[in-house]
Amino acid sequence: MDKRGRRVSLLQIVRQLAPYLWEYRVRVGLALGSLILAKVASVAVPLILKDIVNSLNTRQAVIVVPVALLAAYGALRLANALFGELRDVVFARVTQRAVRRAALTVFRHLHALPLKFHLDRQTGGVARDIERGSRGISLLLNFLLFNIIPTLVEIALVTGILIAKFSPWFAVTTFLTLALYIGFTLFVTEWRTVFRRFMNNMDSRANSQAVDSLLNYETVKFFANEDYEANRYDQHLQKWEEAAVRNQVSLAFLNIGQATIIALGATGLMILAARGVANHSMSLGDLVLVNAFLIQLYMPLHFLGFVYREIKHSLADMENMFDLLKAPLAIVDEANAPPLAISRGEVRFTHLSFSYGGRPLLQDIDFTVAPQSTTAVVGPSGSGKSTLVRLLVRLYDPEAGAIVIDDQDIRRVTQNSLRHAIGVVPQDPVLFNDSLYVNIAYGRPEATRQEIEEAVELAHLDRFIASLPKGYDTLVGERGLKLSGGEKQRVAIARTLLKQPKILLFDEATSALDAASERIVQEGLALLANHRTTLVIAHRLSTIQHADQILVMRDGRIVERGRHRELIARQGLYAELWALQQETRPLSFAAEARGYPPIDPASARILGPTDA
Fold first, then answer.
1. What is the Cα–Cα distance from 60 to 18, expressed in whole angstroms?
2. Residues 17, 95: contact at Cβ < 8 Å?
3. 166 Cβ partners below 8 Å, 6+ apart?
4. pLDDT for 134-181, tens place per residue?
5. Sheet containing strand 557-562, strands side by side
6. Helices 25-56 and 284-326 meet at what angle, rounded to 10?
């Protein structure tokens, strides 16, 4: 059992996939029809072969060759192969569509899950879970419809013919063999599934660690920790290897047991047939018929054991993917929620409180951002500033209070319309591993080339793009790592300009930039904020001096509010932060402003003698 302790049953999977099969019910019907015709032809081949052998086992065979029987034999062989291939061709679209729909359903569900899930997730493991689950769906559909059902039908037909035409001992031997084979297969396969499930967990963990390490390539290099990362990766691979070896050994045990049961059953039936020929109760053609039916019966039976193992493995492979679908949605639209309608653009936070993980982050936050005005929020790290942004775009919902835009509680409108109305420029914009053009157009994918170029020009990005050999087609790398901080910020501004939102959120959008880049980006931000309602989360106080309202937060509360000059005159926390950034206070004051006691260098053991 996996770490979550949940297993996915075959019935649950069938229920999940039933809508996809019903969509192509005509194709499924044609495929099943082809399957039945193929099996009828397959069962008829040994009967024709018996007649051919009996016809040739006479003196007249020297004069008259049974051409019609030989032609029928060849036609049935061809029909078996032809209908089998036709079945695969007709059903191919059904299988691939089911895989596509299931993967898309999981993908959409992942985007609908709350931020908490994505803060805890391991991207590489999730990606591997979806990959294995999609492959498992394809195997399950093919095996279930085209192997289990036809194999059971074929076993029933062959067993019925043996019972009807020969001694009851043939039926007894056949049933004993079937019972032993199925019982042994079920018992051993259940035992082996534990190894498969453990392999999947180790595979997901190894992939998660590998992806995380590669995404943090520069950090690994900075600390010269290549061997450390390789050892961590190898620890997961070692556990996977051990489980894989146990899985392979148990598979060999299963195959040997199945082969032994089939060999004993086949030998018993051939002994009965040979005795029948010896005492003249059966013809030579009957012996050939029994031998052909043995092949026809036990080969599918052996394959049925393989199919059962693969279905169990597929179910294990799909467990994690379907577990993702079970993850609850924390933020959902109300039934028949209307879209957000913005007329003025006023934003009100009314007595807002919010906790995360049992820790209170915001307490009784109450303020209004007037239409087409700029409100800045400042304060020490951990004071709750960025949480305001996440609440405004409904990545979280508050525990108390509300956020109201033009007299509409944002919990009563659709999330899609809310986020379309808000443009966010974060502190560290994360770009897609694609071209500059795609990343800028992401703000409004249906925008024209001219509109994109206008946004680029307004964001002061046009000269930079013109200097690149591939221009707009330049790839930015994973998370935009090929661009500098200022270049990424200007891309973020350009795509937000292209979006044309009514409300803007700047989450410390220039705190990581140098002075020259900050000046350029500030010009773009000022242009973007023109005639829009703007909320700025600021680190550098020099960038928000002209804000219409400044809120000062500490420990999740608003402790001061006013304009820049008013707050300086009060000589409170804002004035202290301002003085700190103007380098008029000692370094120890920086820690005190953030709520920490001053550091005594003599007691700081992590510092070396030179540092202290």
1. 57
2. no
3. 272, 273, 276, 282, 286, 290
4. 777 777 777 766 667 777 777 777 777 777 777 778 778 877 887 888
5. 422-425, 503-507, 533-537, 374-378, 549-554, 557-562
6. 160
Which phi and psi angles does 475 have, rounded to 5°?
A: -80, 140
pLDDT of residue 55: 67
Contacts of 257 (CB under 8 A, 6+ apart): 184, 188
Please, are residues 547 and 541 in contact by the beta-carbon 8 Å criterion?
no
All structural domains of the chain, each given as residue ranges with its CATH number in brackets, are 10-326 (1.20.1560.10), 347-430+503-603 (3.40.50.300)
Residues 594, 576 contacting (CB under 8 angstroms): no
- pLDDT tens-digit series, residues 508-550: 766 655 666 667 667 766 777 778 888 988 887 877 888 899 9
Partners of 503 in the β-ladder: 422, 533
Q: Which residues pair with 354 in a beta bridge?
A: 362
User: What sections of 122-167 are H helices per DSSP?
Assistant: 123-143, 149-165
Let me know the angle formed at the C-alpha of 133 by 128 and 136, rounded to the nearest 5 degrees: 130
Encoding tokens for residue 455? 């946004």
Q: How would you classify the pairing of strands 359-369 and 374-378?
A: unpaired
Report the distance separating Cα 372 and Cα 534, nearest Å. 7
- With contact defined as beta carbons under 8 Å apart, do 179 and 302 qualify? no
Taking a C-beta distance cutoff of 8 angstroms, is the pair 378, 385 a contact? yes
Instruction: Tell me how far apart the alpha carbons of residues 539 and 381 are, in angstroms, rounded to a whole number.
Output: 9
Query: Count of CB atoms within 10 A of residue 550's CB?
Result: 23
**Virtual CA dihedral for 511, 512, 516, 520, nearest 10 degrees?**
-60
Distance CA 86, CA 38 (A): 10
Residues whose CB falls within 8 Å of the CB of residue 572, separated by 6 or more in sequence, listed in order? 552, 559, 560
Distance (Å, rounded) from C-alpha 37 to C-alpha 40?
5
Residue 146 per-residue DSSP state? I
- Residue 377: helix, strand or coil by DSSP? strand
Query: Cα separation of 524 and 460, whole Å?
Result: 7
DSSP letters, 134-145, are HHHHHHHHHHII
